[in-house]
Structure prediction request, 109 residues.
Amino acid sequence: MRRDVFQAIADPVRRDIIELLANETLTVNSVAEKFDVSRPAISKHLKILKECGIIVINKQGRERFCQIQPRTLIPAFLWIEQYRRLWDQRLDSFEDYLIKLQSKNIKNE
Prediction:
């Protein structure tokens, strides 16, 4: 099955893993220790993140290190960004409306 970045970020545990790995490279065991989820469940999440290209897992000796590949998150960022701008515009319009209401109320007092 071909997975994409949107499938990867759809799950809150995977988003938390991405956040962890954005700060540092961790071993698979170190990632698993951060969650109250079974080790096999974390391994499955890491596998999905790897399939999506969001992380790479490098073997060094007996350890497997997870490292984020931030470029693969760009499509999700760009998609979210368009909606952030839309909501910023709507919130600005709402703020303007509230200011007008407030000024009318002050004049009527």
Summary: Strands lie at 26-27, 55-60, 63-68. The radius of gyration is 21 Å.
